[in-house]
Amino acid sequence: MNFKLPLKRFHTLTFIAVMIAALIFTFYRLHAKNSISSEPAYACDEKDVCHKKVLLFRGDIPSNSVFRVAVTLARAKWLENINTVCMQSSGGVFSEALGIAQIIKFFNMNTCLALHYQLEDESATKVSGYCQSSCVWLILGGRHRYLMDDNLVLGFHASRDGEGEPVPSDLPILKGKIMSLEDNAKNSDKLQLLAEWSFTQGHTSKTTNCTASELQNLYPYFTDLPPMRKPSDLTCGLLSPEEIKNRL
Question: What is this structure's pTM?
Answer without folding.
Answer: 0.84
